[in-house]
């Protein structure tokens, strides 16, 4: 379970990533948040004092604020008010480098803004009509007119932008699907690196592939998926994909907007989950990852867990591998345990293989070659009428070999 303090620590790290410096925090236990001020009225007044005294420029709330709460707080405190969702969207906007990433972030931002925009403008019109007073029919008359028209225009503009964005994203998504098909033409198994943000996914990805993906002590350093081809020590070839990190209370707009990117995860053969085992919330983080994988209907995929950052642990006794599926302790940074990790990946891939005995005619050289790349060979004999191969093959490839399967000797 995430505690309030843990969540606030994380919020502080998010704020830092977005370029803010935290100077203080306030927490309050309430049966439910106040409808107008989120915190209780008394604490809100306290906050006003603190903001003045410390000359604070920004107050961040660790939950999604209602448009009404946001406005009330902004008036009361006279500083910028940001909620957790807006903060995460901000970081995503900073880190989106590809066209697809930028489109997805903008879509999420527009969807976040739409209900807020309308409310803000309703407030604006009411203020404008306020001098006429009253909340009855007369008051409503003051509210109509240019103000409302402008609101309608703004809303329409955002809605039309949202539908344009969705169309463009769909275009990009189609491109991806084509690429993925081409990839599956190569019939290599795809391993998606998943995990909590800052767990070390990109560092591990870089170490395994020698790719220069940005890896930083920042939340959500990676937004755009990258795929590389690697050969495991067992000589088996795989495609490894680095993906966007997960976080608790992940804004729903973001999950929806990033569906195209997350397809990389949904389509993978095996998931390689990276856990920052040194983090005090390692278990909570992994639980959150499982929840999101569940939402994506990807929680039942074969999985290998890299328990990362063991170089930061005082002793290896602290590691309980039994808590995670197929866990291997590693340090992506210090390159510890990587052979064992790759062996584990090969092992889990092998569990998805089946044993076959084949006699492949000499003119089917490409199937022999494919077996070498994708399968694991126990016996290979050149006979008069073809190549005899006994070994194991990914279940997905069995269809290509059906005609050459031999009865067991
Ligand atoms: N000490 C130590 N630090 C590590 C290790 N692996 C990664 N790190 C550090 O952890 C931080 C985050 O690493 P990234 O690889 O960017 O993490 P990520 O999971 O890709 O993060 P996002 O893309 O932001 O979700 C960086 O400062 C890395 O240097 C490790 O094995 N040991
Ligand atoms: Mg990354």
From TrEMBL:
GO terms for molecular function: GTP binding; GTPase activity; metal ion binding; ribosome binding. One of its GO terms (cellular component) is cytoplasm. Keywords: Coiled coil, Cytoplasm, GTP-binding, Magnesium, Metal-binding, Nucleotide-binding. GTP binds at residues 195-202, 220-224, 242-245, 308-311, 331-333. Gene3D superfamilies: 6.10.250.2860, GTPase HflX, N-terminal domain (3.40.50.11060), P-loop containing nucleotide triphosphate hydrolases (3.40.50.300). Mg(2+) binds at residues 202, 222. Residues 148-182 form a coiled coil. The keyword Metal-binding applies. InterPro entries: G_HFLX_dom, GTP-bd, GTP-bd_M, GTPase_HflX, GTPase_HflX_N, GTPase_HflX_N_sf, P-loop_NTPase. It is found in: Cytoplasm. Its cofactor is Mg(2+). Residues 189-353 form the Hflx-type G domain. GTPase that associates with the 50S ribosomal subunit and may have a role during protein synthesis or ribosome biogenesis. Monomer. Associates with the 50S ribosomal subunit. Belongs to the TRAFAC class OBG-HflX-like GTPase superfamily. HflX GTPase family. This is GTPase HflX. It comes from Tengunoibacter tsumagoiensis. The gene is hflX_2.
């Amino acid at each position: 379970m995430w505690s309030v303090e843990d969540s606030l620590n994380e919020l502080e790290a998010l704020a830092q990533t977005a370029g803010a410096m935290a100077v203080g925090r306030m927490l309050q236990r309430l049966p439910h948040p106040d409808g107008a001020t989120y915190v209780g009225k008394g604490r809100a007044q306290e906050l006003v004092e603190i903001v003045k005294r410390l000359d604070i420029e920004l107050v961040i709330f660790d939950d999604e604020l209602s448009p009404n709460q946001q406005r009330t707080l902004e008036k009361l405190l006279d500083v910028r008010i940001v909620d957790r969702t807006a903060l995460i969207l901000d970081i995503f906007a900073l880190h989106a480098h590809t066209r697809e990433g930028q489109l997805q972030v903008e879509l999420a931002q527009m969807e976040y803004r739409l209900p807020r925009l309308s409310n803000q403008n309703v407030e604006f019109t009411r203020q404008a009509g306020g001098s006429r007073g009253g909340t009855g029919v007369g008051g409503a008359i003051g509210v109509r007119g240019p103000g409302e028209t402008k609101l309608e225009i703004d809303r329409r503009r955002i809605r039309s932008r949202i539908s344009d964005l969705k169309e463009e994203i769909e275009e990009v998504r189609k491109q991806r699907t084509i690429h993925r098909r081409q990839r599956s033409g190569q019939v290599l198994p795809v391993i998606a690196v998943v995990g909590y943000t800052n767990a070390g996914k990109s560092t591990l990805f870089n170490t395994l592939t020698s790719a220069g993906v940005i890896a930083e002590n920042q939340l959500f350093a990676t937004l755009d998926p990258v795929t590389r081809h690697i050969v495991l020590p067992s000589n088996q070839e795989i495609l490894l994909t680095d993906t966007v990190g997960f976080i608790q209370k992940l804004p729903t707009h973001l999950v929806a907007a990033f569906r195209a990117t997350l397809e990389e995860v949904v389509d993978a053969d095996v998931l390689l989950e990276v856990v920052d085992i040194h983090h005090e919330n390692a278990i909570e983080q992994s639980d959150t990852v499982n929840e999101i994988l569940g939402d994506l209907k990807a929680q039942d995929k074969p999985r290998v867990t890299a328990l990362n950052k063991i170089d930061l642990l005082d002793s290896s006794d602290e590691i309980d591998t039994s808590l995670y599926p197929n866990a291997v302790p590693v340090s992506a940074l210090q390159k510890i345990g990587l052979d064992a990790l790759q062996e584990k990946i090969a092992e889990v891939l092998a569990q998805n293989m089946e044993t076959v005995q084949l006699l492949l005619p000499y003119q089917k050289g490409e199937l022999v070659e494919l077996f070498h790349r994708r399968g694991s060979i126990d016996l290979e004999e050149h006979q008069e009428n073809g190549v005899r191969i006994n070994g194991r093959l990914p279940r997905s490839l069995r269809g290509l070999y059906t005609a050459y399967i031999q009865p067991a000797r």
